[in-house]
Automatic annotation (TrEMBL):
PROSITE patterns documented for this protein: FPG_CAT, ZF_FPG_1, ZF_FPG_2
UniProt protein name: Formamidopyrimidine-DNA glycosylase (Fapy-DNA glycosylase)
GO BP annotations listed: base-excision repair
Gene3D superfamilies, per the entry: 1.10.8.50, MutM-like, N-terminal
Reactions it catalyzes: Hydrolysis of DNA containing ring-opened 7-methylguanine residues, releasing 2,6-diamino-4-hydroxy-5-(N-methyl)formamidopyrimidine; 2'-deoxyribonucleotide-(2'-deoxyribose 5'-phosphate)-2'-deoxyribonucleotide-DNA = a 3'-end 2'-deoxyribonucleotide-(2,3-dehydro-2,3-deoxyribose 5'-phosphate)-DNA + a 5'-end 5'-phospho-2'-deoxyribonucleoside-DNA + H(+)
GO terms of molecular function: 8-oxo-7,8-dihydroguanine DNA N-glycosylase activity; class I DNA-(apurinic or apyrimidinic site) endonuclease activity; damaged DNA binding; zinc ion binding
Family: Belongs to the FPG family.
Domain FPG-type, chain residue ranges per copy: 242-274
SUPFAM superfamilies in UniProt: Glucocorticoid receptor-like (DNA-binding domain), N-terminal domain of MutM-like DNA repair proteins, S13-like H2TH domain
Any Pfam family: H2TH
Alphabetized SMART domains for the sequence: Fapy_DNA_glyco, H2TH
Cofactor list: Zn(2+)
């Protein structure tokens, strides 16, 4: 499942590859969720130039100029794959974009096994509405840790739950949230009301570091291989996980605990992330 570092890698690579290409043709092969609808989508994007590929949180935004954008949300199993013209069509392909720049062509496949993702045509106002749904990103140099502290304190829940809420802080999925809490030595079930500003600062910094590390390693690919980059290559952040999916604490070798927090599988070290001692640790 693509989290921020994975979506960042995809949108960056896509921008480098197909910026300034024109969408020559569009094929929709299924009844995939397209908003407002399939026919409008095909009619509107055909013949348009790709001015830029960017990202809003975990949405990939293909900017077409002319106040038109394609938003792609990969959800659980969506993938964007570039293949040469002669290559076999990937499994679960729903949409094919045929792109051209002078004599160069590229074929982009949008695939999604479980079909929880969606594609949305958006004008400038709709794009702004999307942006407004998300809290600040820890990797944004303008993001303010004090604002983060206020946002988590405004929620009455566990800290793990709060940081998975994309309106509180944008970009942390289950994997990176789990490792960020470990790096900050904060128990995932710490009530937000018990978070001190020091703890919040530590967590904000850890979240930033783990996301930047994930980007550097081009995302994480788990055993299900559901995330690969646009060339079909796996990320390597899974080789650097601290506690996610692990047995023992990398700090103190204590056996890690695993429990569901807010319905999401959470690993933590009962010693390093101990609720009662964490205040004294720093
Ligand atoms: Zn430990």
């Amino acid at each position: 499942m693509a989290e921020l570092p994975e979506v960042h890698t995809i949108s960056n690579d896509l921008n480098n590859l197909v910026k300034d290409y024109t969408i020559d043709d569009v094929k929709v092969l299924s009844n995939y969720r397209i908003l407002p609808d399939k026919d409008t989508f095909i009619k509107q994007v055909k013949g348009k130039p790709i001015t830029q590929v960017t990202r809003v949180a975990k949405n990939i935004i293909i900017e077409l100029g002319d106040n038109l954008n394609i938003g792609l949300h990969l959800a659980m199993t969506g993938q964007i794959l570039v293949r040469n013209g002669n290559d076999k069509q990937p499994n679960w392909t729903h949409i094919i974009l045929l792109l051209r720049s002078n004599t160069d062509t590229q074929t982009i496949y949008y695939t999604d096994m479980r079909m929880f993702g969606k594609i949305t045509l958006m004008d400038k106002e709709q794009l702004q509405v999307l942006k407004d749904k998300y809290g600040p990103e820890p990797i944004d140099p303008n993001a303010d840790p004090a604002d983060f502290y206020e946002r988590i304190r405004s929620k009455r829940t566990s800290i793990k739950n709060a940081i998975l809420n994309q309106a509180v802080i944008s970009g942390l999925g289950n994997i990176y949230a789990t490792d960020a809490l470990f790096l900050a030595r904060i128990h995932p079930e710490t009530p937000t009301q018990k978070m001190s500003s020091d703890m919040a600062n530590r967590l904000f910094e850890s979240a930033k570091n783990i996301l930047l590390e994930g980007i550097e390693h081009r995302g994480s690919t788990l055993a299900d291989k559901m995330y690969v980059d646009i060339y079909g290559k796996e990320g390597t952040q899974q080789n650097y996980f601290r506690v996610y999916g692990k047995q023992d604490c990398p700090n103190c070798a204590t056996k890690l605990e695993f429990k569901k927090v807010g319905g999401r599988g959470t690993y933590f070290c009962p010693k390093c992330q101990n609720l009662s001692v964490q205040e004294q640790l720093f």
